[in-house]
Amino acid sequence: MAQDNVVIRFDAVSFAYDEKRIILDEASFSVRRNSIVTIIGQNGAGKSTIFKMLLGRLKPKRGKINLESGTTIGIAEQVVPADKLDLNILEYFKTALPDKEYGIEGSISKILKTVNLEVPLTKIIRELSGGQKARLMLAYALISDPDVLLLDEPTNNLDKVGIELLTNFLVNYKKTCMVISHDSEFLNAFTDGVLNLDVHTHKVEQFVGNYFDVLEEMAAKLERDRMLNARLEKSIKDRFEKVNKLGGKSIAMNQLARRIREDIAEDREDLVEMRKEDRTIPSFEIANQEFVGYVFKLQKPVEMVLSKGDRLLVKGPNGIGKSTLLKAIMAGRGADINPRIRVGYYSQDFSELDFNQTAYDSLMEVSQNKNRQAIYEAAGRFMLTGELLNNKVGSLSEGQKGLLCYARFMLQQPGLLILDEPTNHINFRHIPVIAKAINNFAGPVILVSHLGEFVEQIKDLTELDLANYPLPSHL
Hints:
Blueprint: E1 6-16, E2 22-32, E3 36-41, H1 47-54, E4 62-67, E5 73-76, H2 89-94, H3 104-114, H4 130-142, E6 148-152, H5 160-171, E7 176-180, H6 184-188, E8 193-197, E9 204-208, H7 211-246, H8 251-270, E10 296-298, E11 304-306, E12 311-315, H9 322-330, E13 335-337, E14 343-346, H10 359-366, H11 372-381, H12 386-389, H13 398-412, E15 416-420, H14 431-440, E16 445-448, H15 452-455, E17 461-465
Helix pairs in contact: 3-4, 7-8, 10-13, 11-13
């Protein structure tokens, strides 16, 4: 790769949040100017951490991060920062362009058209739908015309039309872009290369090519590494047996044994530090709360009763009010939930979680038996280690927060599940397992999801299209 064509270079960069939370260990990679690179890796591997380091919010413990002189960076984050949610659109963009006094309204209107978002500049950000917020964050990143665009899970909450628009935008994008996403079809449309972060080795592997070709290359490399290590380990084992037979018989034999030991030591150093394949969470069950009586009655925008085994999919384009309806249901507006029913709720922004609690306390809070061992076992099924359980919920990655929600469901044993984009931030390998658990849940489920491959796996869905049943304004 030509040195003068590199806009970003990580040179043996190491970073850790503390002694136990190592993220990168002498990681090296480079990004060419005007390329689009995807970052993949297990939940908690450090994908968003790399973005924070590029923005200067975090500093490496060792190594260097080199940016081409004068390079500017813009980011579309996973969520709107909490301190900006109560700003209106105009105020929000002024934080991106603090020095621009004249013509800012025109600039904002132009960039909102680019991302196909039509909202008044006086609109409060908190009042936007998840899909509208996703488009807004992209516009926010683009308005300063950065040299490098960072996109952190940009398809979360976007409907099909929104994903198609974003895909077309990236296919035609002329500058450098780095993308974090679990959406394989989306990534394959525009990716020039892939950076794979390994949560076990804390290294970064770099691959060139479109996304699906890179996945095949990664699988082939993993198999080659396995075969190489197998041959070396067999050779080492055979020579150890030879050393055991030679030792102590004569000076010449002892010298030969010493040389063989030295050869073994060198071969041990040649063993490939293998990338471990992404683990998939094992099958799990969400036990249904035992109860007598009705479960749920929807009153607005239509009357509907949900009983055991019923699945309701709330549909409609971004901004039509799907999340608003679910929040209203949770608040007891336009619906009647049996007061004895425990509700398992997965929200787009994890507002149901207390970010100041430890992950352990978050699980203990909903656990029905308050058994410490059961909490650790449930957490372990979702790759939440004992170490992570001691951390505050707010410090977990977005993917880990999502998995924490499913661990909570296991312990909570709810009578009703209300799921608002329940695959957001979740590694695509886990999605079939989660779909199976939802299918096997005996209680009713209310679901909002734009991920077709997930929705297709949920059986016996009844659809409520809000395009045909508009929400009352008081909801």
